[in-house]
Specification:
Blueprint: H1 26-38, H2 58-79, H3 95-116, H4 123-138, H5 145-154, H6 157-165, H7 171-185, H8 191-197, H9 203-251, H10 257-276, H11 284-294, H12 313-339, H13 342-345, H14 348-361, H15 372-394, H16 401-412, H17 420-438, H18 456-491
């Protein structure tokens, strides 16, 4: 198999003109209709995603937005190790989906009708075979000359037309060849889907399924290409983003004011700690790393975000929510461990179930629409119910009313700033992330602080994403950070 695609998440696209997306251009809509009407088969689509103002052509708009769009896409590919192109899903009930479904049905109904005639008509089938040939060619590498020759020989359209005229065309034979070639070219993850094609005997369902699997194979190829170019894209993206920021920097006075405030705040906090510990002054790298850690507790609603991090503000907000949920998860698991007998907490299957249940109930915590207090109240009820059921089924002494009420209270106040367990877990998570960020070898995992082993897997996954994002940001903006750090550290008069 020529490649193995990565599993990842899709990215959001950005635009210079978001306010224009909702406007309708009649001329462009007519173009869309003509495109659909002239499409030879339903799996070929070319539908524009937005309508520009009437006095701006699509080409002009694309040229104007290309720089921002390309930069955002390149940035997403670089910082998101799980980036993956996904099939586009049109909204249920939308006009475009309705039109697409009608066109698809009309085409396949027409193909069914042609196959049912006596003698069969193969006009549409020949078109599909030509498109199958093009699709198979798209998966070939320059060195696949033998496979190319086989495809040319079997899917020879001139010969196929002659066989159709002479009523000797063998559709099942051509379909089997296509399926065999797909099995040779697909990623291992598609082997089962390709194998299932052999069980379909009716020609129209078979053609539909073949094109559906080919579409998935094209996504696999695109995602494999993305994973391959990521290392080469990093340096180009770093230079491009730095140049764009430099343009902004030159036009805006005080354009590093928020960055300076962010780094200065971290410097002052470290200065106090170093004074209390009678240690030497922290180095610039330490200051900057601590500043990044503080982004996980940033007040995004009331506090402006540093200029160099604006593109990733939403990503840092998501990481803040993830860190909050992870801290709560670790806190609650430690509360359960401290409040129940070792005989219960030593049962790995039960604790895994509790962990999964708590994670599910905490999914909305950290978002404006979800109340942490309400979530913890629900968690307290579920945990006590689960523990009571487990004790009853396995012969453990049931909780007394007083013990159960104490456990409920501990769970409900788990997120309180004064909760010692929460503060301990939060501090140790930040310490782990800081050590991960400071590690000389990015592949080495630092020692896990005590009490975090129940959430080790989730914490390490978050650390990988966090460090990738931070290190890329450092590469892009290091000249600006170095300049600010030099000024801030030299002006500090709070060092011991």
């Amino acid at each position: 198999m020529p490649f193995e695609p990565d599993k990842s998440q899709p990215a959001e696209e950005s635009s210079d003109e978001p306010s224009r997306a909702g406007r309708t251009n009649t001329a462009e809509e007519s173009v869309r209709k003509r495109i659909r009407q002239s499409t030879p088969s339903p799996h070929r689509e070319n539908t524009p995603q937005a309508s520009p103002l009437g006095f701006v052509s699509v080409e002009e708009l694309m040229d104007a937005a290309k720089g921002v769009t390309n930069m955002a896409l390149a940035h997403e590919i670089v910082v998101n190790g799980d980036f993956q192109i996904k099939p586009a899903e049109l909204p249920q009930g939308s006009l475009e989906r309705t039109v697409r479904d009608i066109v698809h049905k009309a085409f396949w109904d027409c193909l069914e009708t042609q196959f049912s005639e006596e003698p069969p008509v193969y006009d549409h089938a020949i078109i599909l075979l030509g498109e199958l040939k093009e699709s198979l060619f798209s998966f070939l590498l320059p060195g696949h000359s033998r496979l190319r020759n086989q495809i040319n020989e079997v899917l020879d359209l001139e010969l196929i037309k002659q066989e159709a005229e002479n009523r000797t065309l063998d559709i099942p034979k051509l379909a089997n060849f296509t399926i065999s070639m797909m099995g040779t070219l697909c990623a291992p993850a598609r082997d089962e889907e390709v194998r299932k094609l052999q069980d379909i005997k009716e020609p129209v369902p078979l053609f539909r399924s073949i094109f559906a699997v080919l579409d998935l194979m094209k996504l696999d190829m695109a995602n494999f290409a993305i994973s391959s170019i990521r290392p080469h894209l990093i340096q180009q993206s770093v230079e491009y983003e730095r140049k764009k920021f430099q343009d902004f920097f030159e036009k805006q006075p005080n354009s590093l004011e928020l960055v300076t405030s962010w780094i200065k705040e971290s410097t002052e906090l470290l200065a106090k700690d170093s004074a209390a510990a009678s240690s030497s002054s922290p180095c610039p790298t330490t200051v900057l790393n601590h500043a990044y850690i503080k982004l996980l507790t940033w007040d995004h609603e009331c506090k402006p975000f540093p200029e160099t991090l604006v593109m990733d503000q939403i990503r840092f907000q998501e990481m803040k929510r993830e860190a909050t949920q992870l801290t709560l998860l670790g806190t609650l698991l430690l509360i359960i461990q401290n409040s129940t007998s070792p005989g219960i907490t030593s049962h790995a299957a039960f604790m895994d179930r509790m962990k999964s249940l708590i994670r599910l109930l905490l999914e909305g915590v950290g978002t404006p629409s979800d109340s942490t207090e309400e979530a913890l109240a629900t968690v307290s009820e579920k945990i006590c119910a689960e523990l009571g059921s487990y004790c009853s089924q396995h012969g453990f002494t049931p909780f007394s009313a007083k013990t159960e009420e104490s456990l409920r209270g501990q769970i409900r106040t788990a997120a309180s700033p004064s909760n010692q367990i929460y503060r301990l877990i939060d501090s140790r998570i930040q310490t782990f992330l800081l050590h991960y960020l400071s590690a000389a070898n990015p592949r080495s995992v630092p020692e896990l602080p005590g009490g975090l082993s129940p959430i080790q897997k989730e914490l390490e996954e978050m650390a990988v994403k966090f460090v990738r994002l931070v290190n890329y940001n450092k590469m892009v903006f290091s000249p600006y950070y170095d300049s600010v750090l030099a000024k801030v550290l030299n002006k500090q008069d709070v060092w011991p």
